Amino acid sequence: MDFTFSEDQLLFQESVRDFLVNEVTPERIRASWLTDSGREDALWNQLAELGLTGMTVSEANGGLGMTVLDFVLLAQECGYVGLPEPLVHTVMVAVPLLNDLGGELAEQWLPKVASGEAKVVVGLEQNLLVEDAHVADLLLMQQGGTLYAATPDQFSLCYSESVDPSRKLFTVELLDSAAPVASGEQAATLIARTLNRGALGCAAQVLGLAQRMIDLSVHYTGERQQFGKPIGSFQAVKHHMANVAVRLEYAKAPTHRAAYAVATGQGVAAHAVSHAKLVACEAANLAAKNSVQVHGAMGYTWEVDLHIFMKKAWALANTWGDAGFHKTRIGERVFATDAVLGAGATFV
Amino acid sequence: MKVLVAVKRVVDYNVKVRAKADGTDVDLNNVKMSINPFCEIAVEEAVRLKEAGVATEVIAVSVGEKSCQEQIRTALALGADRGIQVETDGKVEPLVIAKLLKAVVDKEQPQLVILGKQSIDGDNNQTGQMLGALANMGQGTFASEIAVEGDKVNVIREIDGGLQTVSLSLPAIVTTDLRLNEPRYASLPNIMKAKKKQLDVYTPDDLGVAVTSHITQIKVEAPAERKAGITVKDVEELVDKLKNEAKIIS
User: Fold this and answer.
1) CB atoms within 10 A of CB B57
2) CATH code, A192-334
3) Are B188 and A18 inside 8 Å of each other by CB?
4) Which of A17, A28, A79, B126 is least surrounded by CB atoms within 10 angstroms?
């Protein structure tokens, strides 16, 4: 079985990386912090023109009909630049949930999402706050065991500040006019799948964030001189970053495996996603810690770009299930009396 | 109107190029390769002419090893209709590239040929001019604006100290400067479509061109590193050094 990414998937990654690195610069991100919404319609339109917002929308609804497996490398690239726009959420969470809900709601909204006309945001109780609810044209919101669909006139928002200035978080209160779209067992299944997709999106993004922190640190330690040499040439410094690089490399395979499990609806998907989110966030956390170390005190300042990526990694680590939640899920599976463990059960 | 666009595979402009340890060439191991930025501008201009209804077909052509098909596919993803690769081994000098392009021009009979003014690896700035001479076509080099009007193409050229407007009879050669346009990014649907577009491969023999070399690359070396500066005590010392050491003021 060939687990390598296809030529198309790698080509998409390269193409999207070129776009994001050129267009989503730290300067542009800093400028977005000064705006009311923190979001840029022009950038969203560019993402839509490239076909990104419609990647997981079916071809019948104007999209490309791809899966989260096709998008996982692109989510890493979104993380690499610290993209503030809710692209990963749209492609990996909102669209698949709309696809699962189907019916008139999907037919009405999916073409608009693909064309970039509308943004759909999902709020689950797992996340206490809903990111980007202020720009949502449609909100799919969990309340208890029911999923509701609400347009902006059917909910009210209360802003809540995040450690990451790029994240716009809100407490959402649904009004009575919000319509239930799934309940009971159906809602429980959809909520579980959505949680997995959200956590997978986080894992992929933090891989990119960790890589960016490594790159920033390697660049800085290659320039900064001490005792007549770049500080990156000293073992005490380079080992810091080598440790991060190793941790990051070992976090990639579980994340890609989780994407495969989610895309193909495997029974191990929840377990694989938890594994991915844990190891990816650990790698990003180590990247943040060691990057601050090798930058010295200035690594913690507002002026140095490192914090843009560091804070996003911290924030994502506690979104769509924190470490405790995901460790518990893995523990429940591993210690179950009927657990099937070992290499032979990897893809069961 | 058929438009032929030449594209070259070069080291990506973001890559910090290094010379090989033995000084024989630039080290291309594990280096990202891309379409030459000036060629990308040429593709964009051709695609815009097609979108404006001026051009009917855009053909992207590249001369090089099989790997240059990646850059032809990039051009196809940006909007070119079909591609042509002239497969050669190793480095090919501008005159040979111009002769090969001339053979493609004879075969395709385009009304307009757009090339980048130079490639960012060789920096020769020769192929477009040589092709113009070989094909006996008028040339508008360093173009910052192109307008096709009937059987003429008006080209605004960027020259030292200003702009020059020339009018060329079609068929003609245009080489692009940086300010001609801002190339688009290839969309994912177009990247997928590009894989299905026609790409013909010719050898120099097919085109009746002999690949010969008149140039031998002797050595490649990195520029000398800048020496560290010094701190002067006051303006008087600065003026003294500029006058007596650097001798740049009198």
Assistant:
1) 15
2) 1.20.140.10
3) no
4) A28
